[in-house]
Amino acid sequence: MGEDAPRDRFSRRTFLRRAAIAGGVTLASTLLPGCGSSASTVTSNSTTTAGSTVSSATSAPPASDTTTSSAPSAAPAALDTSSATSAPAAATTTTSSATSAAPTTTTTESGAAGAGSGQSVNFLWTDTNNTRQPLIADFTKATGIKVNQTQVQYNELLDKINTATQGGGAVDVIEMDTIWTAQFAAAGWVEDLSSRITDAIKKDVPESSLSAVTYQGKLYGMPWFNSAKHLFYNTKLLQAAGFDKPPTTLDEFTAQAKATTKAGQWGSIWSWKQSEGLICDWICLMFTQKGAQILDANGKAVFNTMGGTEALQWMVDLLYKHKAADTASLESTESDVQKALETGTYALTYNWEGVLPEANDPSKSKAAPNIKIALLPGGKDVKSASVNGSEGWAILKQARNKDAAWKLLEYMVSPAWQKKAATDAGDYPVLASLYTDPDLQKTVQDFPLYGEQFKYLAVRPQVPGYAQKSDIIQRHLHEALLQKASPKDAMDAAADEVNKATAAP
Amino acid sequence: MDRPLSSPVQPSKRSQGSEFSELTLGLLMLAPTALVLLLVVGYPLVSSFWLSLFRVNLANPEQGQPFVGLGNYLHALAQPDFWYAIQRTIYFTVGSVGIELVLGLLFAVLLNERFRGNLGARVAMIFPWALLTVSNGVLWAWMLNPTYGVVNTLLIRLGVLDAPKAWLSDTFWTMNVIILADVWKTVPNMTLLLLAGLQPIPHELYEAAEVDGASRWQKFRQVTLPLLRPVILVAVALRTIGAFRVFDIIYVLTGNGGPANSTKVISFYNYDQAFHYLYFGYGAAISWLITACMLLLIIIYLRLLRPDVES
């Protein structure tokens, strides 16, 4: 560009300046896209965790202090604004709703404890409605260790963990669903806690809870709560239709759901969106048949001939033949189902524990105080069938301060946490001794029934690569539920694909 | 960016010494940019291509990372899911870009007229575009909710529907509703581009057409469209490339590309393979296949543009 300009010192300087500006602008514009989407991220607290950081596999910048998001997975992290204020941060978090997608970052600090020790733990979990925040505050008060939390919806948790471990996000402790234990352990992401979990701890934690965090005989996490699906029903609607008792078999369920469906009111609603919740309900229905099986001893998919097809047929019939399930089921998650139940216009639902406190709170639920809990229906030779949804907390291999992380796990399994979590958040305790606790029997509605349901549990396959296999089954279940395929064709295709997936790229 | 270097490359007659040092200076100035570009663009490009030649399954480190050549690419091309995802992507792209073009053209022509409140209309136009895609998605999810969404309430009041419809659990409607949400957000973008193309069209041409007795439609057909053609092509090209990579709005509205994978577009498929199942080699191969599709599109558009540039 300087060619036509007179060659003197002045033009030389102009060139220099122009070149400098051009270089600077290009440099800036090159660098900006990397952090462009995080421009909206406001972090008012310097201790905010970088846990929600999603970094791409290739560039992998060690996400340091603020929340950044990189291009390929900008979606989940983009809306990171919210909260990030100190203190128990009750109101600010973006909660639930149909679609979510708003991970929130909260930091809990106890004003009292001398933060001089400066110990902190970065924790990734799903407490999006903040019901367990007081417990975290208790922990900080007791130990002086700060907990920097990243709270995400359950359906986003696995991807967050994947990226945190691959991209080097600063996450120390994660919430680990039972179905991930195998994969995380096999991939070597989580710490083997066998030596830390002493017999003294194990004495009060039953085998069924430990199984959720066990892979090949070793313990990779601390059981957090016992979990299963239960039947929640609206006594008012059932009584109006002439039923004194909730259904104990699937046939009775169909009859009651049919009788309670009328204008402005549905007999049932389900979490049959294409997601893990669909698999859980399908398994509950499948195991009402004796001898049902998902994978055989060699890990081969056999569910299409071992009860899965019949369960799917029942689901399709309930939707279209009996018209006794709201079609909104096909886009609902468990939290949508709970919200629906709370409108007082749904008679029967399947859901995880923890529904009752809110559903019977008149300020939050129009259905209060008519919601009750019962064992899930069974079948001919099966009293009841539910699915194990227990979860644990695990320490990542990459954790910076494993001792502080362990303190958090230790506190979580103590009676102090377990009892309060049962009363405040409706979490099943993992400590056997608490099931006879008189306080809990008094405060938690129908407390012994939870313990009873836990005796009838099917376990989802604990195999590496579960996520992909589950996705395949979900997709085919959904095809049948949308009447794009017959239940038999859908199940055969799913089994075939699951068996091929083991030889995937 | 090596363009600017080529101009002072023939120093010859003019004052050689300073010319040469200007070249060095220029190089020095560009070096940081070049270095950064190399790091953030060049390195990932090369390394992702390299990665795509291996079997990398991060969830199963025991299997090692064997070299498979073009195995990942061949595997993708043999997957019905891959082709289904491509098909859904094309459906989305054609649908959204098509509607955006028609609406964008309409709005651009309208806004190009002089009327009271024109400026206000232009500003209002930009709002949807300024919204974050994720917020846009959440907004639509609320509006479409079968139990308490405003869309169902409105349609029932208007007598279009008898009962609430579950829009996002219908293989036909979900994708179309997503197209609608995308159109709502990106029409302003299209409108602005086309408006910029409309403004330099000289008014005399319309006057001449009027003298010849052209109707409104004829003026649009014979004057506006031909002159706007290059701008339309550029706008469509940009939007096509954007639409082909759609991901966020679908992630927010469906979470999993449902119902029954009907909204699992190619970016979503890629995301699942790489970040959900941790098949990184395979994921890298898919992203290169997506890039190949884009290159193909760009070449087609360049071809379409060329004759106009010459004439």
Structure explained in plain terms:
The complex is a heterodimer of chains A (505) and B (311). Helices cover 38% and strands 12% of the residues of chain A. Chain A has helices at 9-36, 74-78, 133-143, 154-167, 181-187, 199-202, 207-210, 235-240, 250-260, 276-286, 308-321, 334-341, 356-359, 402-412, 415-425, 438-443, 447-453, 466-481, 487-501, and strands spanning 104-108, 120-125, 146-151, 173-177, 214-215, 218-219, 222-225, 229-234, 266-269, 346-352, 371-374, 386-387, 391-395, 457-458. In chain A, the strands form 4 sheets. Chain A has a 6-stranded mixed beta sheet with strand order 1-3-2-4-13-7, sandwiched between helices. In chain A, α10 packs across α11 (308-321) and α18 packs antiparallel against α19. By secondary structure, chain B is mainly alpha-helical. Chain B is built from 13 helices and no strands. The model of chain B is unreliable at 1-9 (pLDDT under 50). The interface between A and B is large, with 70 and 74 residues.
